[in-house]
Specification:
The protein has a single domain (4-222), classed as Rossmann fold (3-Layer(aba) Sandwich). The protein is 48% helix and 22% strand. It has helices at 4-14, 18-26, 29-43, 58-66, 79-87, 123-133, 152-172, 175-187, 192-199; strands at 48-52, 71-76, 93-95, 108-114, 134-145, 204-211, 216-222. Strands 3-2-1-4-5-7-6 form a 7-stranded mixed β-sheet, sandwiched between helices.
């Protein structure tokens, strides 16, 4: 759980270089992670999708391309990030706090959040809001970083705290923002702890699929 003002400041500062940093730092594997997420969502055959913490819109745009019959709404509390998404052609877009969504109960068939729940002020409150705006029987997908098991954990931790901030700082001019990234990944629940948090806040049958030896995970659940 994070300080909203700090998170807003970080993402506002890096919005223009956010995509470049993501693709370089992940070695392009983020495209594969999003592709898997899109395939999972498509299997649910949703008519309405809320992509929360949509950021620069990469996941929402991928879902629009894969499911042209569905209405995909992108929402984020950081306007500079939404402006990047708008320039890439994503619409409709809504400025919204994930813990206080401006949508009616049961508005969506699916809610997705990629690399965003971790940055929210209250993870339980955000999950409860996602559950509220989903219809009965609707689906949740969370894609985020996670900590791998030893011995990879030690190498990954070194990368997060010593290598990643230097590379990202050179790309974006904001090293402090990526020092925050490593800290937030360490604090964020993963594996069964994340599944338990999802189940405790309005969802059932939460499951995890580890990606890239566990450095990221997809969680899916039903309302």
């Amino acid at each position: 759980m994070q300080d909203p003002a700090k998170v807003h400041g970080i993402f506002s500062a890096i919005a223009g270089r956010y995509d470049l940093a993501n693709h370089v730092l992940s070695g392009g594997i983020d495209f594969l992670w999003r592709a898997r997420a899109v395939r999972m969502v498509k299997a649910w055959q949703p008519r309405t999708i809320l992509d929360l913490a949509t950021g620069s819109g990469d996941l929402a745009l991928a879902m629009q391309r894969a499911m042209p019959q569905a209405r995909v709404v992108g929402a984020d509390f950081c306007l500079p990030m939404l402006q990047v998404a708008a320039r890439k052609g994503l619409h409709p877009l809504v400025v919204a706090d994930g813990t206080k969504l401006p949508f009616a109960d049961g508005s969506f068939d699916a809610v997705t959040v990629a690399f965003g729940l971790r940055n929210m002020e209250s993870w339980p409150a955000a999950l409860r809001e996602m559950s509220r705006v989903l219809r009965a029987g609707g689906h949740l997908l969370v894609l985020d970083f996670s900590m791998p098991r030893p011995p990879l954990a030690a190498l990954y931790r070194f990368y997060l705290h010593h290598i990643l901030p230097r590379i990202a700082g050179a790309l974006t001019g904001n090293r402090a923002g990526y020092e925050y990234l490593g800290e937030s990944i360490e604090l964020f629940p993963s594996g069964e702890a994340m599944c338990g948090l999802i189940r405790a806040n309005g969802f059932t049958a939460a499951e995890r699929q580890p990606l890239a030896a566990g450095i990221a995970s997809i969680y899916n659940a039903s309302r």
